[in-house]
Amino acid sequence: MPYTDLPGYLEAAHTGKVVTFPTDTVWGIAVKPDYSQILYKLKQRSLEKSLILLGASAADLWPYVSIAQTIWQTTTERHWPGQLTLVVPASPQVPLAVHPTTPDTIGVRVPNHPVACQILTRTGPLATTSANVSGQPNLMNVDQVLSQFPQVYGLEDEALKTLINEPDNDIPLPPPSGLPSTVARWQSEHWEILRQGSVYL
C-alpha cells in the first residue's frame, strides 16, 4: 500500500494497519498497541524482544506506566523529546501483545522528530520497532521501507510537508541519526543503563 495522503494514512493507523515514519534514531514501523502481533510477524521478531511505545508527550504515555510521577517527570523533563528509552513498570493498560514475555515492564519514548511527533499527536501512542527484518540492517528511507514491506503505509512527500506546515519548503526533513537510543531500566532506586547511546543519565 505504498504511499498515501494524510487522511488515508491516519485511517490506516487507527484501524490497526502498520505505518512507517522517521524518528530521531531510525525509520520505524508502528501499529496501534492492540495489533502488536502484526509487527512481530512482519519483522520475524522473537517474542522475547518487547516492542516499545512511542508517544508525542510524556503525558500521552503516562497511562501505560506504573511508576512514581516524581521519578518519571524528573527524567522525562530533562531528556524528552530525545533519544532515551525508559523501561519502567507497566500498567494494566499495556496490551500483552506489546510485551508478551515481559508483561511487568514496558519501554517508552518520546522521539525528537517533527514528523514522528505530529503523527503520534494524531494517532496516540503506537507500538513501534525499527523498520527492518530482525537481524538485518536498518532501512534508511521510506522507499526502502515500502519496498521491503509492501503492506505498510507511508506518507507522500507533500503529505509530509503539510503535516509539519511547510508545504512550500524544499528543505529536506531531518534524517534519523542512525544511532540507537540509550535504554535505561528503573531499578527501585536508580536507572540501570541497558544500552548506552547518545543520552547520558
Descriptive overview:
It contains 7 helices and 10 strands. The protein has 201 residues and is α/β, with parallel strands linked by helices. A hairpin with a 4-residue loop joins strand 2 and strand 3.
Give a quick summary of the entry.
This protein has 201 residues and is an alpha/beta fold. The protein contains seven helices and ten strands.
Helix content: 25-40%
Major sheet characteristics: 8 strands, mixed
Low-confidence stretches: none
What percentage of the residues does DSSP assign to strands (E)?
A: 15-25%
Tell me, what is the CATH class? Alpha Beta
Instruction: Characterize the overall form.
Output: globular
The structural class is alpha/beta
Quickly give the CATH architecture: Alpha-Beta Complex
CATH superfamily: DHBP synthase
The average pLDDT is 92
Read across the widest sheet, the strand sequence of neighbours is 2-3-7-4-6-5-9-10
Number of DSSP E strands: 10
Radius of gyration, in angstroms, nearest whole number: 16 Å
Distance between the termini: 41 Å
- Put simply, the count of helices is 7
What name is given to the CATH topology? Answer: DHBP synthase
Order of helices and strands: EHEEHEHHEEHEHEHEE
Protein traits:
201 residues; DHBP synthase; 8-stranded mixed β-sheet; two-stranded parallel ribbon; 27% helix; 7 helices
SSE blueprint:
Elements: E1 3-4, H1 6-14, E2 19-22, E3 27-31, H2 37-43, E4 52-54, H3 58-61, H4 69-79, E5 84-89, E6 105-109, H5 114-123, E7 126-130, H6 142-148, E8 154-155, H7 157-163, E9 182-187, E10 190-195
Parallel strand pairs: 1-8, 4-6, 5-9
Antiparallel strand pairs: 2-3, 3-7, 4-7, 5-6, 9-10
